[in-house]
Amino acid sequence: MSSFLLGFASAALPCKPSMMIASTRMATRAHSNQGASNTFLSSKGFREPFLHLLRFPQNNVRDIAPSQNMAIKDTDNRNCRDVGIAAPPTIMDMARDWRDGVGIISFLERRNFLITGATGFLAKVLIEKILRVAPNVGKIFLLIKAKDEQAAMDRVKNEIIGCELFICLKQKYGEEYTSFMLSKLVPVKGDIQESNMGIGNDSFRQITQEVDVIVNSAANTTFDERYDAALAANTIAPSWLLSFAKNCKKLSLFLHLSTTYVNGERPGILMEKAFEMGESRIDSSTQSKLDVHHEINLVSDLIETLPPNEVPQKLKEIGLARARMYGWQNVYELTKAMGEMMINADRGRVPVVIVRPSVIESTFREPFPGWIQGNRMVDPLILSYGKGRLPGFLVDPDTVLDVIPADLVANVIIAAMAKHGTTASPSIDVYHAASSTVNPIMMCDVLNYSRDYFAASPLTDDQGDEIQITDMEYFSSIDSFSSYIQKDIAEKSGLSKEIGPNSNPKQRSRLEARCKRMAESIIHLAKLYEPYAFYRARFDSWNTRKLMEQMSTEEGNKFPIDLRSINWEDYFTNAHIPGLKRHVIKKASSS
Predict the structure, then answer these.
(1) How far apart are CA 360 and CA 6, in angstroms?
(2) Distance between CA atoms of 490 and 493, rounded to whole angstroms?
(3) How far apart are CA 558 and CA 561, in angstroms?
(4) Among 55-59, 384-388, 507-511, which stretch is predicted with the lowest mean pLDDT?
(5) Does the active-site annotation cover 332?
(6) Count of CB atoms situated within 10 Å of the CB of 272
(7) Where does residue 159 rank: exposed (0-12), middle (13-18), buried (19+ CB within 10 A)?
(8) Percent of the chain clearing pLDDT 90 (strictly above)
(9) Are 195 and 207 in contact (CB under 8 A)?
(10) 85: DSSP letter
(11) How far apart are the C-alpha atoms of 75 and 106, rounded to whole Å?
(12) 422 DSSP assignment
């Protein structure tokens, strides 16, 4: 419940791979990705979310400084050059863009891809779109966490090939569907939290010889995750993957999926700007510089020194505290931002694109409206409201909720991939896939659309009776909301009634405990979402709009990325909420 969608699970380490020892200390860094081992910390008697956490030498400028080959962008954000500023576009350049567009289909054909986080929501939408529009694509290697190769294949068959999302391809290929999918999708047993991605020698040789584009869709999106787990997945893993990418002989692009919320708690319009190492989201004159290596060493020291039974909770607390100290709202945002820093600091001549989606929700049109996998950010609020469990919430109704459907995010990824993968310029380019500056929607709109939908198509309770909902009540403080929700739960459960002579003390005690757990769960959810319920920033999407303008008319129709075309009322009432009922509520009920 406490997640944005962005994707998925991982872990990697800095710019250059490291030789490590299976202890609590980090060895010196190595210069080659080949043969590097990855051993994480483990504490006897309890299970760590990652088995080995790397330590870094302090004050090593080479480890954290940006590449000396860092390109300098020109003012209109075209491709970069290694020296000086790129020349402005010529008339012929603009004419070519107008005539041919970005060249998306020609780029996709016969290209080979490596995708991490492949069983995640967004990655599935991306894979489906590529296979549907470009059946002549080469191989798509899918990094799958599994105990062996057969288990990896089984996951691909069950979670991707057997997924309802691919229904259009099933209809197109009929009995040949499975053979077509297996001719394109190559399961690779591996783990992004290991050096060389935990890939076996044969697969390593094949991938490094054949892959043209790497897409990192893996992340840990839990807002209140342990600091060690979030660092492993969102900061260390992308850097390990970048180190792996440098072994790929044909690589034309490294595309990393992030989130717009790496911009932190800053009001105003937030730009599509790459992070430099050490940036924070607060006034640097009053706060020490963020040191990624220090953060990793800090966690290593805590795991070494704390009693094992205190580690899980302490690591959650320290993650939130460090995020707030440097101007981010939670450990997810902080570790994703540090992951971007690691990529930029050591990309060298690897062409890099970072796509930052905002809140990703169900598909708008393709391959059909309303497909979704699991609860996304705003969905627990919508569904709890529809079930009558959340008649009020801690939220400013006038806050802009930046939402984008998953299929539009996939189109931004593909278009940016084609544009920058074709030129393979050793630059870093950032794209915001976001709606708040081009087609904003407020929280009150989302909740009003939900009210109207559930009034017309109410959910039913365990007895089959229709659930009646009321207008949402809005609260501006956690104290007032906490009092309200505790009282509401007590009244609906019957706990607020006076104790009668025939009441059962044990039953009442169990009911009190149940109501307390329900209230604590909702209040915890409200605290997690509070920063977004009162968020004052909006996300600039100039680069994305420029990309849209460079696409041909045919490309614009086949890969739509114009968020201005979305009628939000129609989307929520006819696509998203019906999709939640079909793919989230129904699945939860059947399981």
Answers:
(1) 7
(2) 5
(3) 10
(4) 55-59
(5) yes
(6) 22
(7) middle
(8) 73
(9) no
(10) B
(11) 28
(12) H
DSSP labels for 182-222?
Answer: HHHEEEEE--TTSGGGG--HHHHHHHHHH--EEEE-----B
Return the H-helix or E-strand segment holding 536.
Answer: none
Percentage of the chain lying above the pLDDT 70 cut: 80
Q: Could you tell me which residues come within 8 angstroms of residue 317 by beta carbon, excluding any fewer than 6 positions away? A: none
Length of the chain: 591
Active-site position among 145, 246, 336, 419? 336
478, 378, 561, 445: which is closest to 4 by C-alpha? 378
Distance (Å, whole) CA 135 – CA 111? 11
**What's the pLDDT at 587?**
59
The pLDDT of residue 454 is 97
How far is the CA of 290 from the CAs of 224, 236, 280, in angstroms? 20, 16, 6
Contacts of residues 445-449 at CB distance under 8 Å and 24 or more positions apart, as own/partner, are 445/568, 445/569, 446/378, 446/382, 446/401, 446/403, 446/568, 446/572, 447/381, 447/382, 447/385, 447/397, 447/472, 449/568, 449/569, 449/572, 449/573, 449/577
Rounded Cα gap, residues 513 and 511, in angstroms:
5
Cα–Cα distance between 117 and 152 in angstroms, integer? Answer: 13
**Of 227, 332, 453, 571, which is the active-site residue?**
332
Contact assessment for residue 209 and residue 141, using Cβ atoms and an 8 Å cutoff: no
Residue 76 has pLDDT above 80, yes or no: no
Segment 350-379 shows an average pLDDT of 96
Amino acid at 71: A
- Residues 254-264 have a mean pLDDT of 97
Contact, 119 vs 92, CB < 8 A? no
| Residue 77, SS3 per DSSP | coil
CA separation (Å) from 324 to 37, 253, 377, 486, 497?
Answer: 33, 33, 20, 28, 42
Looking at residue 91, what is its pLDDT?
47
Using an 8 Å Cβ cutoff, are 261 and 333 in contact?
yes
Q: Please identify which residue in the block is written with the tokens 């757990």.
A: 517
| 3-class secondary structure, 486 | helix
Say whether the peptide bond before residue 397 is cis (omega within 30 degrees of 0).
Answer: no
Q: Tell me the backbone φ, ψ of residue 393, rounded to 5 degrees.
A: -155, 160
Question: What pairs with residue 567 in β-bridges?
Answer: none
Taking all residues of the chain, what is their mean pLDDT, rounded to a whole number? 85
Residues 6+ positions from 179 with CB-CB distance below 8 Å: none
pLDDT in tens, 393-450: 999 999 999 999 999 999 999 999 999 999 999 999 999 999 999 999 999 999 999 9
Please count the other Cβ atoms lying within 10 Å of the Cβ belonging to residue 587.
11
Banded pLDDT at 99 (limits 50, 70, 90): low
509 pLDDT band (50/70/90 cuts)? confident
